[in-house]
Please model this.
Amino acid sequence: MTGRGAARRVTLLALLAVLAAWPWLAPYFAIFLMTEILILGLFAASFNLLFGYTGLLSFGHAAYFGTGAYVAALLLRDMAPPFLAVLAAAAVGAAVVALVIGWFSVRLTEVYFAMLTLAFGMMVYALVHQWRGLTGGSDGVAGFPLTAPLPGVAVNIADPVNYYYLTLILVAVSAYVLHRITVSPFGLILRSLRENSERASFAGVPVRRYRLAAFVVSGLFSGLAGALFAPFNRIAVPEMAHWTQSAEPVLMTILGGSQYFFGPFLGAGVFLLLRQWITSYTQEWMFFLGVILAFLVVFLPRGLLGLFDRWLGGRS
Amino acid sequence: MLRLEDVHAYYGESHVLQGVSLEVREGEVVCLLGRNGAGKTTTLRAIMGLTPPARGRVVFRDRIISGLPPNRVNALGIGFVPEDRRVFRGLSVAENLQVAEARGRRQRRWPLERIYDLFPMLAERRDQPGDRLSGGQQQMLTIARALVGEPDLLLLDEPNEGLAPVVVQQIGRLVDELAATTTILLTEQNIRFALRHAKRGYVIQKGRIVHDAPTDEFRTRPERLERLLSV
Model:
């Protein structure tokens, strides 16, 4: 047990070292790829707090990702405050949206919960798509400046290497916080809800309150991911709030393994690498990606980390 | 302490409880006897708020609790041990107990040390996941989980179902021990277990209470009880 724990810590440190040295190790385009992996990995990990840990499958997480993206883009365009303030405001904005949507959604479970989150997600999409006066409709919000992270810190984050490091630090800190949440007493209650919410309720757990809390925390970090994503792309577009964007963290999480904290990050990496690789051969990358994902879901129900775990002789 | 007044409950379309009335007084051990499908489990679920009564009311310590969600019923001091030993299979023994620990109210009569004293085999296995326990161990864990919620009234749903005779004996001793400080309502199909450990009994048939008597009376006239419980 301790041997596995130590092995895990060494792996994690080695991974962090590689990520820290990435701009020197990898070709230029790979800096962009890794930035995207980190951002979408955070998105998927925040989704998985709800899915893997609480047992609620949300099909509407693009609502919070998109809210984060738009709040960030609009703040930068109209007020240009320090970048970290932008990220904080965007994450809080997404958490507020999650509080409202979650308040209704956690009344339901299973497929009804999934459908309700999907419906709310499409409402957010319709809103950003139609509210041309504020969001520019399908043109999106572009042409905003990238401000200094904090007043007096003159780092140019428009430089892809600097943006990569900013992303790496924020994603690492967020992953640490999310992980602490999953191993806390609060996280334990969430896992009991995933196992059986009725059992938890007669054991004294106020089920809806805990589900809503998980929902809001999940929305907060999804919003942060979205707020990193729009400046990374220099644009916020309605597609970032579309249900196809909601599907990505679902696929990434299942690919990597929802029962492992780092499953969503690994899933995001494999998903984006596969997409990169397949698009270099064909435009129909969705088809081939679909085939690969279907194969993985059927033969590796516990995801890639589940497979590694089995190879390493972990619990069946 | 607990009173059910003309409680009706449904599972979907089926009218499972058709006007159940019963009473449990402070300090009593009461058993609810009945055949499979008579409504024993539903009666306990109705008290707990898991199958809310459609009609009638449940009164606990002069307070109407029908309509409250299960966690509020638990917080008022009612612990539930469901049949089939429903542990959290993916959580360790210690985590199973931690989830159910009383949330900051009432004095703690059942701190974890006392639980582990009472159930030494749970202490030995505190880091094992729930699904690695045997049936008897899971039953002990479900009882322990109810106790850490600091109940004043304990609902035990067929605590012996499917367990080996030696485990049934252990549970019997445990019920006697708990009875000193806790009021207990238990359901049983096993007449002998009920007669040995309960002071009073109700017989439920097709969702109605058909008989109510001290178990002494059942003991002296067992043929009457046999008749009520058979077809």
Observations:
- The radius of gyration of chain A is 19 Å.
- The interface with chain B takes residues 185, 188-189, 191-192, 195-196, 198-207 of chain A (CB under 8 Å).
